[in-house]
Amino acid sequence: MLREQDVGHRIVVRRRVGVRAGRPVYADALGELVELTETHLTLTTRQGRLRVPMADVHRAKRVPAARRPTAAAVVELELAADEAWPAPTRGRLGDWLLRAADGWTGRANSALPVGDPDRPLPAALDQVERWYAERGQPALVNTPLPLAAPVGAELDRRGWGSRPPVLVQTASLVALTRRPEPGAGGAGGPVVELAAAPSADWLAVAAGRKGGLPAAARHVLTAVDQVRFAHVYADGALVAIGRGTVTGQGRWLGLCLIEVLPAARRQGLAARLVGALAEWAVETGATGAFLQVEQGNVGAVALYRKLGFTTHHTYLTRVGPPGPAAAGR
After folding, report:
1. Which of 89, 93, 113, 221 lies 20 to 30 angstroms, CA to CA, from 268?
2. pTM confidence score
3. Can you tell me the distance from the alpha carbon of 139 to that of 76, in angstroms, rounded to the nearest whole number?
4. Would you list the DSSP string of 112-123?
5. CATH fold for the domain made of 169-312
6. In the chain, domain spans
């Protein structure tokens, strides 16, 4: 049976979900164990959070740790991702990062609780709430799993909500730089142009996807030493965009805003964008690529799987409830 030290680890639980013809019906659930009490256990699964009464647990066991990345690997990738998406307003709470960008995107407006906050966990989260309240913003916390499972459990106790799970996926640049086969989007297709700054057309497409681009957004997009903006034109019109950064001491290509306009889809343009950015990153000395995609974005997940990406870890963006801290009191 599970013990307190299993909190923060990946487990599988067989639980009773009903009765049929006088016999119990069981179902399995796989996820990160974020809370364990005498009466309940709570998992973060791909479908969201699952709270199971202990009376319904038939059996439960920890998934072997070899199937999960180390804590150090999660921290490394999360810090590379933070460097690739730099919020203009930043603070620190021990090792924790506090980030704000006028509310533009969750990643740039959330605390990242990796490392030691240099104070007890409840006090650290109190300070997070105050920091965002002082800026007139809702408190958000990104919780990489399983690393930040204890933080997630404390946020559960405080009544915080959660946005849909996000997959942090990685791939080798060797795989991504393989040339596409001739055919749709292959040899002879539109050229991918890389620029050190985004064009006005590029920004317009990005604004359409992200609901506008305030001044803080321009900082997030451009304030990286090694960054390239991919443009694909057809008949003089911009039909696809992408952004790539090299961060994490030069190891990681970060991919984001891979967007193909509806009229140009199903021509392999997304794969061409990724390939062009990967080739640029290889020239800088990078060896791996990462991206972040909502688990529920089935089309994008399928595309990235085809390109060779696999899930490294997941994270949840936790949302603080309205209250005295959120109101700035």
Report:
1. 221
2. 0.77
3. 24
4. B--S--SS-HHH
5. Aminopeptidase (3.40.630)
6. 4-67, 75-164, 169-312
